[in-house]
Amino acid sequence: MEKLLELSAFKLWLLLMSVLTLRYFFVAGIPYLWLYVIGKDKYRGYKIQKKQPSVSQVVLEVKYSLITFCVYSSGIWLFLNWLKNGYTQNYTNIDEFGNVYFVFSVFIMIIMHDTYSYWIHRLMHHNAIFKYTHLLHHKFKNPSPWSAFAFHPFESVLTMGIIPIIIFTIPWHNWSLVIFITWMIFYDTFVHLGYNIKQLKLFKFQNTPLDHDVHHRNSKYNFGLYFTFWDRLMGTYKT
Ligand SMILES: [Zn+2]
Ligand SMILES: [Zn+2]
């Protein structure tokens, strides 16, 4: 990763922006094509809200997602500099902490992120900051895979806050972070599918597209990202 920093700041930013954008069109585009275009009639029974999101909504979702990736690219540039300067808890040899810790560290990142997401999400719903941060994401009352990263820039900055928390507090290998981020991208897109695919609900405490759809329609409930533990504990869970 450090080699990337040999590029000029602008070239690196442009490279990050291109990777994030391509990744977005791939991860959101495939389920969109599959569920909303090719299989629109076949999977109609799985659609949570019977109405399809309008073209203008999808265009707005893509627009705000691209703005989010501008913010994320700047953040990643900063994180890479911290990494290069040895400020983080990064380690390069898996044997240093072993394979068990390597796998465990990915789970820890997921649990940390779920907790961070729940509380930052609740914070953004506070009247004092809602309209300056999270209101934009709630404009998309009928979510689609394109809405997973459709945030106000201030929300984008807040959502990135999990990365410094992880890289400064727990020993992490480059690949464990890559696995965690890949999981995060797929799962965030999954909960915004707008389709209730029961076969993909594997355990009781899993957050699902149906749970997140409830949140987009009624913002008092279901603040969780991956799990429903915090919602159940805090009395904000609704099916
Ligand atoms: Zn959402
Ligand atoms: Zn919300």
Question: Helices, strands, pairings?
Answer:
Elements: H1 9-27, H2 29-38, H3 55-84, E1 90-91, H4 98-124, H5 127-130, H6 153-160, H7 162-169, E2 172-173, H8 174-191, H9 209-217, H10 229-234
Parallel strand pairs: 1-2
Helix pairs in contact: 1-3, 3-6, 4-8
Bound molecules: zinc ion (2 copies).
Number of structurally distinct domains: 1
Span between N and C termini?
A: 42 Å
Which word captures the global form? globular
Largest sheet report: 2 strands, parallel
Mean pLDDT: 95
Structural class: mainly alpha
Number of H- or I-type helical stretches: 10
Give the strand order of the largest sheet, numbering strands 1, 2, ... along the chain.
Answer: 1-2
What hetero molecules are in the model?
Answer: zinc ion
Strand-residue proportion: under 5%
Rounded Rg = 18 Å
Q: Which consecutive residue ranges, at least 5 long each, have pLDDT under 50?
A: none
Instruction: Give the helix proportion (percent range).
Output: 55-70%
Strand segment tally? 2
